[in-house]
Structure formats: structure tokens, C-alpha cells
From TrEMBL:
PANTHER family named in the record: GLUCOSAMINE--FRUCTOSE-6-PHOSPHATE AMINOTRANSFERASE, ISOMERIZING, GLUTAMINE--FRUCTOSE-6-PHOSPHATE TRANSAMINASE (ISOMERIZING)
Subcellular location: Cytoplasm
Domain SIS residues, every copy: 283-426, 458-596
Keywords: Aminotransferase, Cytoplasm, Glutamine amidotransferase, Repeat, Transferase
Assembly description: Homodimer.
Active site (catalytic residues): C2, K601
Pfam families according to UniProt: GATase_6 (PF13522), SIS (PF01380)
Residues making up the signal peptide according to the UniProt record: none
Predominant location category: cytoplasm
Cytoplasm in keyword set: yes
Catalytic activity, reaction form: D-fructose 6-phosphate + L-glutamine = D-glucosamine 6-phosphate + L-glutamate
Record-given protein name: Glutamine--fructose-6-phosphate aminotransferase [isomerizing]
Organism: Ligilactobacillus ruminis
């Protein structure tokens, strides 16, 4: 949450680099933004707005330029979205400027203890930090010493990635990180800092990972990293082999539609990444051994990734015969259940940065339990800190609502579950032809994507004005119903519940009234007839029903018919029309599909 970017270089192009970087980071928060730049003569400019990067651009004038600067795009935690609360924040004497991603747990105590006489202009926790740097520098410390002293009084509950500038030292950037992600971008005649490599891929493909406790001083030609123990360390850059254009929208109006459309290709990419020509599976033996030695898998995740975990539960139990539990990360960390004797943890996370999941991984590491992260982002925090990583190969996901990462997570879980079961000689795994099945899934997804205009019409007829809606299903379709409901509510603001269809009659059916949309997902042969009965019950109470079903279970009048695929993989296909319904409902209502209100993509605060 919140994106930060900084550059120190030799050319006067800092504004362009910062704006381009912030546009790439806007998925992390988009309620306000700002930049601070200095030129080689020490001329400084601060520009901040409430609103988007586009609004920030409108406020820039040609005289605002420089070779060094810091920028920020915000997702509000402390204080409403406003120009005053936008970053960069500055100290009372106007010397220090700071951007921050994270939360300072003890900011009130620090304010009371050190800054009682300081006049604050914002309601943020961040301003306390920049005022502290000034406070300690007034005690005669150098900027670096004052910065380090400030870091030393911030408590362990806090999370931060900071970028600091001192107006008296144009050309120098100070950075520090704890829990929030931060990378150094290494260039031939510049150096930069960013929350995500995507922000600086136009400038460089070489990045250095920072770890918690690092303090960095950067100039255009030098990088000085001090680790948490105060040692000067030399970290080798890694190369990001990704084209900057992979995160462009191309001809699409919205990233969400582009990413929905990309799903068949992602299925093929996963097949080619994990499957050999002969269909055998290519996964690290040490990981497979560690998983097969465990007596219980614990999947920990948040939001859509949690929903992918629910499907994973079916896959690991049915194909690998390993008992599996799925937990919401923000609940698990502070209320850990009694664990089995040999637990193995799986962290599902598109971004690899979700703070709720990370706080669980920190505990799991302290307890010395083995772990795997399944993520879309190589070198992300969860990937670095788990014992093993499997990548999603989905390409950058920019729309805040996750689509292709969800289906990629399920596909990777399926490949992994198949291999685990195969090693154990489990019949269901041996019979599961993942190579052929993923191809069938990709084709079925393509059929759905090709029928998007029918789904657009269905959205218009049924969801255009409704205030609430339900998705219902049983078994694996219930897992899909929960994800489908999240998709619709987060982008269209229609209050939607995903419900076990058999459970409706135990109370929630009271909410059904004339015209309430109820979307039933029916792909599970065992429970299809029961869900059909539940559909009749809601029709009898006036519901406006849409049925999403598999070809072999379809009945006359069903609105969305999915090509048949392996029953264990139906969530990969049945979610596609639900994603499209959400997309078109949001678009038809005139909302910002890719950046729904109140949300951000990478949730790096707990
Ligand atoms: C919803 C959505 C979120 C994320 C959740 C976890 O469309 O994208 O619910 O799934 O914030 O994020 P990751 O997967 O990055 O850990």
C-alpha cells in the first residue's frame, strides 16, 4: 500500500522518472500523490495533490525540474485523503522531505515525547518521522545519524519503507526499510529506489533487494548499504527480465478486461513452465519431499488468494491425500490453531507482499516449520522468506481486482497436488492428466472470453441497478461463489454474498425479494440436483436467477453454459463469466474499474 519512488541522477529528468514510476505504482494506492525535486543548484520544488497521478501531472509546470527527487502515491491510513496529508511530508524548518509506505505504530508516543512544541500540518503518522529527523539533527547530528536515531525510536510493531531528502544535500537520497518492500534501482549514471521494480523498468533492469533494518545512502554514482547490525554490505544486483511494456494496457480500455482475456494464455504458460514434453512435472524434489513428509498442509492467504486456497484444499486432499486447512492470514497470525505434528505452510499471494500473510510467515519461520510461497512476483518478500517458491507466471497483474492471478494460483496448486499424489502412488493423481486437462481448461476459458458480449448483455439486464446480489453453489462451486461475490462487490459496489446454496434456507433466504439477483454456479454433478432445488426455492420468493453451469449439467433456459472440463478444475472456468459480470457491471455503472474506491492492490499494512 502506497507506492514510493526516488531518483538521484545527473540529468534534469527526475520529474519524468518520478511521474512514470508513480503511474506504475498507482495500483498501490490512488487517493493523493506528490513529488519533491531538487536541481544541482539546490532549487527545490514540492507538488502535492488530492487525487490521481493525472491530477499531479496537471499541476506540474516546465520550471519544476531537477536531477534528484522522491515521489509517493497514497492509500490513506492516518488522515483523510487531502493535499495536506499527501506525501512528501516536510519538517518544520523546511529542510527535510520524506515519503513513507507503512504504518508507524508508536507515532503518538513519539509526538508527545519529542515533538510537543512542533506545529504539524497533517494528520499523518509520517509527519512525525520527518519532524523527528529535524529534531535529532538540531541536536548536532548529521542527516544520516539523525535518520538512524529516528529509526531507532520507531517501535517493532511499525512497518516502513522511507525515502528521505535533505535540502542541504541535493543529490543524496536516504532510504530505510522494515517490513514494507523497497528495492534499489541501479543505473549507469543514476540510482533509484522504488516499492516495485515495475516503477523503474523503463530506466533499468538491475535491482538490489533491501532487507529489514537496512539504511541506505544513495548518490548518482554511489550506493552505501548499512545492514541492521551497522555493517556496510555489498549486495549484488539481480536482473529483472521483464519488458516494461508487459505492464501496458495496449488497446484495452481497462487492465481488468485485458487480464481476464489473458487467462487462457496463462494456463498455457503454466503448463510450459511446470510440465515437460512427456507430461512429467518439473518441481523441486526437496519441496515435494518436505510436503509429502508433512501430516497437514496449512494454506494461509488473504482475499482472492484465500479463495484460491479453498480450491487448493480440494486439490491437495483429493489428489495428494494430505489433510489441508485454509486460513485467513489476518486471523491466523494472532490466533494460531493447535497445529499438527508436522505442519507444512503454503502462502498464496499474487504480490508476495501482503503484510497479513507475512506476519504469519515470520512466526512460521521462528517456529522452524517448512514453507512454500506461491506468488506472481519473484524476489518478493514472501518469496524470499519462505523455504520454497513456485511462480505463477501470470505476468504483471495491474487491475486491483485479481483475476488471472486467482486462476494461476489454482492451476499451480493443481500441478503441485498431482505431483505429490503421483509420488505417493495415489490413484486419483495417476488418473489426473494435468497436461491435457490444462489445455482443455485454456480452450474452455477462451470460449467464455469469446462470449463476453453475451455476458455484457446479461450484466446490463440483471445487475445494472440492483443494490444487492447473491452467488450460490455447493462444494467446489461454493468456493467459486465466494470469489465471484468478492469480484462483483469490489468493483461494482453491489453488496454481494457468496453462499453455500443449502445454507440459504437457514436464515439468509429472508433477504430474497422480488428481483434480487441470485447467480447459481452448478458444475458439481454430485450436488447439481440439490442446488437446482435451492434455485427453485429462491425463484418461488421472487429472485431473478442466472445459472452458470457445465455443458453436461445444463438445462434449457440456463444462461451461461461452460464447456466441460475435469471436475476438479471447473473453478478455473466457472469464475471467468463471474469476472466478466463484475467487469461489465462496474463499467456500465460508470465506475473506475481498475481502481475501485477505498482499495489498493498490494496490501502492505496489517
Ligand atoms: C481482490 C484482491 C485481494 C487480494 C488480497 C491478497 O480482487 O485482489 O483480495 O487477493 O489483497 O493479495 P495478495 O494475493 O497479493 O496476497
Amino acid at each position: 500500500m502506497c507506492g514510493i519512488v526516488g531518483i538521484t541522477g545527473k540529468n534534469d529528468n527526475a520529474v519524468a522518472v518520478l511521474i512514470n514510476g508513480l503511474e506504475k505504482l498507482e495500483y498501490r494506492g490512488y487517493d493523493s500523490a506528490g513529488i519533491f525535486v531538487t536541481d544541482s543548484q539546490g532549487q527545490a520544488n514540492l507538488v502535492k495533490v488530492k487525487g490521481r497521478i493525472a491530477d499531479l501531472k496537471d499541476k506540474l509546470t516546465p520550471d519544476i525540474k531537477g536531477n534528484t527527487g522522491i515521489g509517493h502515491t497514497r492509500w490513506a491510513t492516518h488522515g483523510v485523503p487531502s493535499e495536506n496529508n499527501a506525501h512528501p511530508h516536510y519538517s518544520e524548518n523546511g529542510r527535510f522531505f520524506l515519503v513513507h509506505n507503512g504504518v508507524i505504530g508508536n507515532f503518538k508516543e513519539l509526538k508527545d515525547k519529542y515533538l510537543a512544541d512542533v506545529k504539524f500540518v497533517s494528520e499523518t503518522d509520517t509527519e512525525v518521522v520527518v519532524q523527528l529527523v529535524e529534531h535529532f539533527s538540531n541536536e548536532g547530528l548529521t542527516t544520516k545519524e539523525a535518520f538512524k536515531k529516528t529509526l531507532s525510536v520507531i517501535d517493532a510493531s511499525s512497518s516502513y519503507a522511507f525515502l528521505l531528502m535533505d535540502k542541504n544535500e541535493p543529490g543524496t537520497l536516504y532510504a530505510a526499510k522494515s517490513k514494507s518492500p523497497l528495492l534499489i534501482a541501479v543505473g549507469p549514471d543514476f540510482n533509484g529506489v522504488c516499492s516495485d521494480a515495475m516503477a523503474m523498468l523503463k530506466e533499468t533492469h538491475d535491482f538490489i533487494e533491501l532487507t529489514d533494518g537496512d539504511v541506505v545512502v544513495l548518490t548518482a554514482s554511489s550506493i552505501d548499504i548499512e545492514d541492521k547490525d551497522g555493517n556496510h554490505v555489498d549486495r549484488k544486483p539481480f536482473h529483472v527480465d521483464q519488458d516494461a511494456s508487459a505492464s501496458e494496457k495496449g488497446a484495452y480500455e481497462h487492465y481488468m478486461l485485458k487480464e481476464i482475456d489473458e487467462q487462457p494464455a496463462v494456463m498455457r504458460k503454466i503448463a510450459s513452465a511446470y510440465l515437460n514434453e512427456d507430461g512429467s512435472i518439473n518441481i523441486d524434489d526437496a519441496l515435494l519431499k518436505a510436503m509429502n513428509q508433512s501430516d497437514r498442509l496449512y494454506i494461509v492467504a488473504a482475499g482472492t488468494s484465500y479463495h484460491a486456497g479453498l480450491v487448493g484444499h480440494e486439490l491437495f486432499e483429493k489428489l495428494a491425500h494430505i489433510p489441508t486447512e485454509v486460513h485467513v492470514a489476518s486471523e491466523f497470525g494472532y490466533n494460531m490453531p493447535l497445529l499438527s505434528e508436522k505442519p507444512f505452510f503454503i502462502f498464496l499471494s499474487q504480490s508476495g507482499e501482503t503484510a497479513d500473510s507475512r506476519q504469519v510467515l515470520v512466526q512460521v519461520n521462528e517456529l522452524n516449520y517448512p514453507s512454500l510461497t506461491i506468488t506472481n512476483v519473484a524476489n518478493s518478500t514472501l518469496s524470499r522468506e519462505a523455504d520454497y517458491t513456485l511462480l505463477l507466471h501470470a505476468g504483471p497483474e495491474i487491475a486491483v481486482a485479481s483475476t488471472k492471478a486467482y486462476t494461476a494460483q489454482i492451476a499451480v496448486e493443481a500441478v503441485l497436488a498431482k505431483r505429490l499424489g503421483e509420488i505417493k502412488g495415489i490413484k486419483e493423481a495417476a488418473q489426473f492428466d494435468i497436461k491435457a486437462d490444462l489445455t482443455t481448461v485454456a480452450n474452455a476459458m477462451q470460449t467464455m472470453v469469446d462470449e463476453k458480449h453475451d455476458i455484457e448483455a446479461l450484466a446490463k439486464q440483471n445487475l445494472n441497478t440492483t443494490r444487492n446480489a447473491f452467488y450460490i453453489g455447493r462444494a467446489i462451486d461454493y468456493d467459486t461463489a465466494i470469489e465471484a461475490a468478492l469480484k462483483l462487490k469490489e468493483v461494482s459496489y453491489v453488496q454481494t454474498e457468496g453462499f453455500a446454496s443449502g445454507e440459504l434456507k437457514h436464515g439468509t433466504i429472508a433477504l430474497i425479494e422480488e428481483g434480487t439477483p441470485v447467480i447459481a454456479i452448478i458444475t458439481d454433478p454430485k450436488t447439481a440436483a440439490h442446488t437446482r432445488s435451492n434455485v427453485q426455492e429462491v425463484i418461488a420468493r421472487g429472485a431473478n436467477v442466472i445459472i452458470i453451469t457445465s455443458e453436461s449439467l445444463a438445462q434449457p433456459g440456463d444462461q451461461i453454459v461452460l464447456p466441460d472440463v475435469n471436475p476438479l478444475l471447473t473453478p478455473l472456468v466457472s469464475i471467468v463469466p463471474a469476472q466478466l459480470l463484475a467487469y461489465y457491471t462496474s463499467k456500465q455503472r460508470g465506475y473506475d474499474v481498475d481502481k475501485p474506491r477505498n482499495l489498493a492492490k498490494s496490501v502492505t499494512v496489517e
